Amino acid sequence: MNRYFLYLVILNMLINVIIFIPKILIEYRYKGAVMGVLIAIPIGIGMNYLYSHALNKFPGQGLPEILAHSKYRWLVNLHLGSIQIMWFSAGLITLLGFTDILSRFVNPEMPKLFLITIYLAAIFLIIQLPTKRVMYFLEIVLYLNTPLIGFIIYKTLTSEFLSWDSILEVGTHLFEKPSLKAMAAATYSFSGFTNLIIFNRVIKERLKIWNFIIILFLGIFNLFTTFFIPIGFHGSDGAQEYLYPWISTSDSLRLVYSPIERVLYIFLMFYMSISLMSISIHWHVALELLKGTFKEKENKKKNWMILAAFTCCAFAGVLFLNTVLLNKITAYWMILLLGVEVITVTIFFLWARRRTA
Amino acid sequence: MKTLVKWRLIVISLSAVLLLNGCGFKDIDKRLFVVSIGVDKAKNSSKKYLVSLKFAIPGGKNKANDFFIVTEKADSMAEAVRAIKTKVDKEIDFSHAKVVVFSEEMVKLTDNAGVYYWLARRRDIQEIAWVAIGTPTAMDVLKVKPKSEQLPSNALFLSLGKDGSETPYIISEFYFDMKKRLIERGLDPFLPIIEAKKELLEVNSVGLFNKSKLILSLTQEETKILNHIMNRENKSALWVKTGNIKFIVSTTKIKTKYKIITLKGKQPCIKVSVKVKGNIEEMTAKITNEQLSRFEKAAEKRLKKQIKEVLVKIQKANVDPIGFGLRYRSRHFNNNDWEEWQRIYPHLAFKVDAKVEISDTGLIE
Q: How far is A138 from chain B (nearest CA, A)?
């Protein structure tokens, strides 16, 4: 069992609350989301297995190092570039989504630009660190937060207001034609493996089959909680009315003897650090891949230029996207991500097999 | 050295963030906290609602439960709140609004969806606020100042929540659950009814809705039975009379299960089974521990009858607070299960099965 690999996958599972996945799944609950989720599980696990299996042949190396000596430079750049754009936008959507949540629930009078500035400052601090240290950072954040998030999930599952009949009612729409959007959204929970492109640098050993079995069970549990718990709390017909189903669900819990009765604020507090880490991990990957596409050695000026470009994108996103639009874009973006993932995984798997055969 | 320069740069750019003024923040002494919201039907006015907000006045130890109520007539909640803002000097803060009281007249109006949904749309109103019906008016409920109350509206919070008194006559309801019931097909809303007495608040009945409108109010005993069916509260009591002996079972556990049985060619029915555990708390004649099984039978018979009566009453009013319809929907894979259920429900038969276990007769025989 390799814990670093698990962290990367678990991080994506945790963050899918912020990145509109419950919303997309619940929107299609009567129109094929259940089947979509069930199909997404083997696809997600399969991609996890194939990709990490292929990368395992190059222990301790990230994708840029592996492809550094390739003759077809443009192909490498295209390959790295497409992943890099997808992963940068993944971080961007999380960032915009979470800024929106913060400005809605925590400080509505503060301009979003300020909020995002603070976030960007912290993110840039992290993403420039060496890969190993980013990984350690992630480990600390997960250790601090996951037990408490687990506690919140435990409270929801044992709540008397969780209506299992509502959940089963959605379950009876199992045999609908699977919806592509819902399926793509559900595979996002498993796509943390893509971080291995860079984070393979810290993984020195072979990944055993146990990792994938754990991911399978975690993924099933995670998709169940993301999709069904809001339905249990807000009804099979009513859950889709909420803009952020999971955040409203956390607000529907009452911890009588905790310092703060409203779980919403505790929940947001945990998610502040988790989304910070998620964005940082995604952007660290994007940054390293971008560095990998340059031929010459690292150059400070270029580094700053990249960060400036990141900042511009984030600001533009805040200024021009509202929540509803972001939500719509994310639904299509998920499909695109699934496509890119399938293509990159297949290409890399075949390439690695020929290379080492 | 190089890393030091880098860190210095980062620290400088980070501290620049501190220069940005945090303009949104208002101090706590410039805020007024709403503890409960009341909505009445406006009288002698062209407007629809009379909205009252109960504000807590922060004070010292000696007069901790001071409050004042500001009211406004308006056609919508948003308008009313905006108008109330012009009547008070500080910023209105809803983050402590934990009870919303609607008056009985107001919940009998038909198109209240705007008010109900306003509570969910606002980010600062908690989903775990309690909702209730107030009689004679919501305003009267807000005005009551019970002697034992230490903070404004705290008596309401304690009696509706389970951390204060625990009784089977209160079926409290959180806002998010009510909102779920407003739209879920096969599960109808209900609200506890709070009666304002002179210095007391009495909560011992429940009003049942057909989605948007109050249809039926249950009596105290019926409320208790509904509570048993919904498994909300274990600590309860059963009044039983057999022959000329009257005895009371104090319960420690009540568990109700139900199953919908629809067989072709037969009348569809619901099998309800109740399991009760408890001991005898009071009796009018001597009962020894050997005779208990006879009294168990009597208690079962009585419970069966009571439950059936309540279920039939609810069914006659064509409301479904227990969620039979949702249960039916969740067990059928076809897409028109809801339409089917609407046809089935009025002709449904109830078969109630009760099992009462009386462990002893208390500390003495």
A: 21
